[in-house]
Amino acid sequence: MEFTHWKRRLQDHFERMGFSLLTERMAMQDMVKLEATHGAFLFFPVTIHLYERSGWKMIAFEAKTDEEPMLVEQQIASLFQLLMVTFQEEEREFLLGFHANTGRYLTDRNAPVGRLVRLIEECWYDGDVLRVETFDPFPGLFVAPPFAHQSYAFMPEGRTWRLSVGRTGRPANDYRFDGTILAPHRLPETELFTQTPLTVPLEEEDAIRSLLQSERQTIARFHQRAMATIHAYDPSFGFAWRGTQTFFHGVPVNPFAQRLWLEDGVTRYRILQQGSTRVLASGETCDTVIEMLDDAVSSEEPDGQAVSPIGQLLLGIWQQIESDEATYVTGVECRGISRAQADNRIRHALARQEAIDWIHRAPNDHDLCRFGGLTLSFPHRPPGVVTIERTETE
Length: 394
Hints:
Elements: H1 6-16, E1 20-26, E2 31-37, E3 46-53, E4 56-63, H2 69-86, H3 89-92, E5 95-99, E6 104-106, H4 112-124, E7 142-143, E8 152-157, E9 160-166, E10 193-201, H5 205-231, E11 247-248, E12 251-252, E13 255-261, E14 267-273, E15 278-283, H6 286-298, H7 309-318, H8 325-328, E16 329-335, H9 339-351, E17 357-360, E18 366-371, E19 374-379, E20 384-390
Parallel strand pairs: 4-5, 16-20
Antiparallel strand pairs: 1-2, 2-3, 3-4, 5-6, 7-8, 8-9, 9-10, 11-12, 13-14, 14-15, 17-18, 18-19, 19-20
């Protein structure tokens, strides 16, 4: 590698801009580390790493300061824009900045990468700022959009962008299967990206937008069909109740669905159960996988005893993994309503994705809540008797 190529010229440019630099050459990683200060421009010192990743000339900024985060972000963004304005134009095309404090990318707004990031934000993030959280301190242009259960990487090749796809599923507690984000997730440090045949010319903005929209629509349709398939057998599948897990036949369900690309350009759809890494369905087409998924989730329990709606609700709250409902729900007492009516009400409430209305929670006593027009009382920890009565209308 040409260690003194663009990194050295950029280092010299920082010095000409008036920065005081302490330089460390990290030859094993082909990286330059700069401790930079500027009495007039920066209110705090910054650490700058210069490295190459996935075809990009990366400039990673990190500020260790107690200043207001918004002020720090504005300072770093202003510094990068000043750098882009003053640095040689032919060197700027594939320069990409990364603010490690916030996970935000910094781009030259007038360069192709600036337009690409803007289109990603527009088409994949509905206009929100692209901020990628990753355990890797020195990423390339990695994207983990909220509509997918995997990550993407954009790599420049000559005068085109190439889209690569990550193989790792996102942590199960960070999303709902229908694509609704519950919390930010981080990309693993050693994420493996596989190149796809999907490429688009650098300057063709309409073509980039079309590719991004097509990928989002394809994944959204896949997730929607998978969700509908399982939901037909279990109306509570895919929905969480304020921190509890979702259960299917009494077993915690944390699946993710992906469309991968194999090395030869063939697509591979798969749906996995994250907790056990069990593959529920896998095939080359979406239709094939949905058929396999239907077969997988339509199978009954080994003993033929399905978990009742009441049991499913309680097992979900108690977060028990066994499907033997009777081990945990030792009895059900219904007051003013029959067991069948209570089951039906809870089944419909699960299908409507109603939230639990907690009245009382006590680690050493009974919990009390309202759900589906019923008031339920049960031990905070299993096993125990569940008492159910109609909720009094005010």
